[in-house]
């Protein structure tokens, strides 16, 4: 994603965040507590992907 723009990353992050929150709620988890829970593999993968996108976006914002 090296050539991805900041706005594209923000859009992708928002979509992923919404998907993760839906998945968490569907399985009875509170999205606000996701960082403190042992999540099933699928949810843990989505959570990890979201955190990676957040890190990439923060790095881009620091450069700008």
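-> sequence recovered:
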């Amino acid at each position: 994603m090296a050539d991805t723009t900041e706005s594209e990353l923000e859009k992708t992050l928002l979509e992923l965040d919404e998907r993760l929150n839906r998945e968490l709620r569907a399985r009875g988890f509170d999205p606000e507590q996701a960082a403190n829970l042992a999540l099933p593999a699928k949810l843990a993968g989505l959570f990890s992907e979201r955190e990676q996108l957040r890190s990439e976006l923060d790095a881009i914002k620091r450069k700008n």
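Residues 6-63 form one domain.
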